[in-house]
Amino acid sequence: MPRSRLRPCRRFPPAREPQPIDRSAANMSTLTTERLRLRPLEPRDVDPLVIHQSSPEVMRYVPGGIRARAAVQALVERSQADWRARGHGLYAVEHQETGEVIGYCGTRALEGGAAIELDMILAEEHWTQGLGTEAAAAVLASAKRAGIRQALAVPHDANVAAHRVCEKNELASRGSESHYGIECAVYAYEG
Length: 191
Prior knowledge:
A hairpin with a 3-residue loop joins strand 1 and strand 2. Helix 1 packs across helix 2. This protein has a domain at 25-148: Aminopeptidase (3-Layer(aba) Sandwich). The chain contains four helices and eight strands; from the N terminus they run ββααβββαβαββ. By secondary structure, it is α+β, with helices and mostly antiparallel strands.
């Protein structure tokens, strides 16, 4: 019987002293895809987001509907706080070709704070081009690299386009639940 050859054990370098993590929004990585650039939300994003989120069609399936400037500003401020405290949050989604902010996509605490939610809103003129799927894929890959092992997407039951984004990103359907005062489908990402 031939003897198997044993390989010498590989030596690993000594462990380094852990360094504090800088979780300020300015130091979070920018994500790029074939057509998009995603960066942490900043105060300069309020104006373009107000334009998108003042559209009844864009906000049709969003609890509370159209958002006033103060609500969008609060969303940006909460996201910046999430980046600092948790190392993840919402990204401004920019179209690489034009540099235009076309919406946001990212993670945040789900209502009640017990889970992480994948959230996204894109301007209507950028629907049906696969940009939502592309943005969500980049965010989910980043979440996995950041050590996020589970996130939920909770689209309105009637929001077929959001369901397709979840399905194309291979999120598992988990039925329906009530969130934000409406009945939502639940999709789970497990990294």
